[in-house]
Amino acid sequence: MTPEEHRFNALVLAFANLQRLMVFHNAVALIEGRELNPDLREQLTSKMDLLNEVVERSSQSRAVSETDVDLVRPVASYLEQEIRAYYDTELDGGDLGAQAAFGAAAVFAASYLGDGIMHMGRVFGHDDWVDREMQDKPNLAILLNQANGTVGSAVRSDFPPEMRGYIDHHVRVALGDRDLVMAQVDGLTTMLDGRVAPRPSERRDGLG
């Protein structure tokens, strides 16, 4: 990829992982019967709003300006810490609610990543990226429905075998992708410098 594509890829990965955190924390709050902490919501939404603005500007110019790179660097640092915390979620104690939230977050992150890769492909003329992600869309739609169902089951504290199976699958895939996701998140600063880091084509989340 070109330096500009590396920078844009950082935007795509950062936004998908912010959505991972938003879905996770929203799901945990919903399952626990409380509102999401307003400060946390503001932290996440403000960063996503910033990313949306930078993506819009960068799409028009097909380049991420140095000013926008500087604006996004704190988001990269935030994600390095918070995605690690997400992966440190206690999942071995039989808490199906925590597992449902953890797995659903991975499914939604995969969906947002796919959308971002398609957009990036259109911006930079990579039709093969767009075609590949379009082929994944039907499967992702099924997985998103499953993820919503697992969180709904957790809210009701009712886990029929089908939902337990979905939770188990989503968690196993999410944990299997931990090393790749962390490499991508830890590589955001490198990508913002326009240098080599994991490419969208190296995605192996197993969900798409």
Q: How much of the residues is beta strand, in percent?
A: under 5%
**Class by alpha and beta content:** mainly alpha
Q: How many beta strands in the DSSP annotation? A: 0
Q: Largest sheet, if any?
A: none
Low-pLDDT runs:
200-208
Which series of helices and strands comes N to C?
HHHHHHHH
> How confident overall, as mean pLDDT?
94
Radius of gyration (CA) equals 17 Å
Amount of helix = over 70%
The total of helices stands at 8
| Cα separation of the termini | 22 Å
Write the layout of secondary structure elements.
Layout: H1 3-31, H2 38-61, H3 66-87, H4 96-124, H5 127-156, H6 161-176, H7 178-186, H8 188-192
Fold and architecture overview:
79% of the residues lie in helices and 0% in strands. The protein is an all-alpha fold. It is globular and about 50 Å long.
Attribute tags:
single chain; 208 residues; mainly alpha; 0% strand; globular; disordered C terminus
Brief synopsis:
79% of the residues lie in helices and 0% in strands. The protein is mostly helical.
